[in-house]
Amino acid sequence: MNDCFEDAVDVEACFCAHCNRVAGGEALRYLRTHHDSEQLRDSFGSGNRVVIIGAGWIGLESAAAARAAGSSVTVIDSAELPLLAVLGPEMGEVYAKLHRDNGVDLLGHYMAPLAYAQMQVVAQAVEATGEFNDASLAAYARGATFHTVMGAIKFGTNGEWAEPRVFQVQFREISGHDAGQFRNGSRQIVVSPPALASGTLSYPYAEALS
């Protein structure tokens, strides 16, 4: 989440502990002290657009306060539901509905397929070696191809994927301020790795915005 999705969303206020600037926006706000909370309050208001990173307790409280002040709010989280790890899916649905009903746009992506694939790698290594010894499993993993829900996976000499599948994505043709346009992937063009690319890199980036 470099630069809080620079150019992906028209950010005016973003709450994040992992970066220190927002390109194209006025302010990045942290929430650590009483003074920070006053700055957050002052950044809320009718017509302001707010992006919050993290759907935990503080993120959701900030979202509610921003909406009450008239701001347009998007909450981005790594899970598919707010507070999922703390309260579970049933209560997560309750909080998701509550915030959506009050105009908060929740964007989340759950990591279950990748986690399942990781356990498939472990299971297949155990089945092949008949052992639980770490050294034996690691030695087997260096030369084997694993068939998982993420596709066939083979590891390189340093433990990396032999064929990289970490996507490099360019956001394009962003229209207005509707976060819904990012839901179906039509604005996110995969430019690398080449075998999985859905398009080529548009440069300079300004040409990709229209």
For the record, what is the CATH homologous superfamily label of the largest domain? FAD/NAD(P)-binding domain
Q: Helix amount, in percent? A: 25-40%
Name the assembly state.
single chain
**Biggest sheet statistics:** 5 strands, parallel
Distance, first to last CA: 23 Å
Please identify, by name, the CATH architecture of the largest domain. Answer: 3-Layer(bba) Sandwich
Architecture overview:
With 210 residues, this protein is α/β, with parallel strands linked by helices. It has two domains: 2-109, FAD/NAD(P)-binding domain (3-Layer(bba) Sandwich), CATH 3.50.50.60; 112-154. 31% of the residues lie in helices and 19% in strands. The chain contains five helices and nine strands. The strands form three sheets. A five-stranded parallel β-sheet has the order 2-1-3-4-5. Strands 6-7 form a two-stranded antiparallel sheet. Helix 4 (112-129) crosses helix 5. It starts with 12 loop residues before the first strand and ends in an 18-residue tail after the last strand.
Q: How do the helices and strands line up, and which of them pair or pack?
A:
Layout: E1 13-15, E2 27-29, H1 34-43, E3 49-53, H2 57-68, E4 72-77, H3 84-101, E5 104-108, H4 112-129, H5 134-141, E6 145-148, E7 151-154, E8 168-171, E9 188-192
Parallel strand pairs: 1-2, 1-3, 3-4, 4-5
Antiparallel strand pairs: 6-7, 8-9
Helix pairs in contact: 4-5
